[in-house]
## 1
Amino acid sequence: MSQSSPSKFRGRTILVTGASGGIGAATVRRLVADGADVIASGRNEAALAALQEETGARPLPFDLTSEDSIREALSGLELYGVVNCGGFGGEIATPQDTDIDIFDKVISINARGSLLVIKYAAPAMIAAGAGAIVNVSSQASLAALPGHISYGSSKAALDNITRVAALELGKHGIRVNSVNPTVVMTEMSAFYWGRPEIEGPFLSQMPLGRWATEAEIAAPIAFLLSDDASMITGVSLPVDGGYTSR
């Protein structure tokens, strides 16, 4: 795993959504260690306050399902970078059993919410003439997973948002990429992936044969935000222990 550098993001402000969750909080910690001024957004204000106490990241709660909330929160912010990590897992269901209300909520948060953050973060980044955006997608957008019709669809939409945003914003010096992790055993994922009948067969198909850690997702996010990735844009990077290479 790459080592943190206190000077990598010095003088750069980066917004991280979903910062009250496992991967988002790990990303905040990594970016702060790399010298960034981090703005942490999420639904759980108590978790954001604890993260501020731990890291110094500035809390900025807003509602990813509300365009007005996102517009108001991001108005006037001068950002170098954005990490769209806010997400909702939805349900495990087949297409014929899907609850469309849950499907709509998953799409609203994972795809629509990320697009709205880009919409309202981009103008300041365009004015600055530089920046980087990383969307946290999933292996579920790259391979069909049982029961993941809603979540996988939302992340496939997010991958397309990544590619189109990279195309549109590249001329302004802004790079847009996604990371596509395998399962990190967070509270959101444990209810399904932690079941022995699910975990064993899945890991047996993965070359590295284990779940990812939160830090192992935060590290490539930091890389894609950094100048080390200055010629990389429009990429969906699997961080999945080789699962989608099968």
## 2
Amino acid sequence: MAKRLVEELERDGIVKSERVKRALLTVPREEFVLPEYRMMAYEDRPLPLFAGATISAPHMVAMMCELIEPRPGMKILEVGTGSGYHAAVCAEAIEKKGRIYTIEIVKELAVFAAQNLERLGYWGVVEVYHGDGKKGLEKHAPFDAIIVTAAADVIPPALIRQLKDGGVMVIPVEERLGQVLYKVVKRGDKIEKKAITYVMFVPLR
């Protein structure tokens, strides 16, 4: 089932690199959804978790992962851990060589994600934190890449500050006509923003 889904994403031009393709084929999405949704794990759509959160659709996970151009040795911050699936895909995309710090505001979700990641062997590559993702994780900054999996009103200044020079942030931003996914690149004091597509995420709390 995973193979068919990934082939479709490849055909649609969403999966572009071997790294992301391999990561999606390696991470068992059914292990990151609630038991009642296991049969739907390889449908290309978001699925409910709890506390109003969702696990992102596979095409969105693939797209965001491709946009940061994953490579071994990267230090990545994820804001909005959810069930831990996206962090696991990123871990595989960097070949588990590097570190992913992920922060979740809902304590029950942070615990759920940590249990999933530990059970599946991602402990030591992925670190889960409970806290306010808008503030980032100053103690581990700067980051090569930041992925935000909830829609912000504005790009949080703390996240821009914690991005390495030349680093990439992928973030959905709430705008007048809807949410827009941006690829943000930091160049010294300048920020380059590129609109990618319209999206629909839960709000960044």
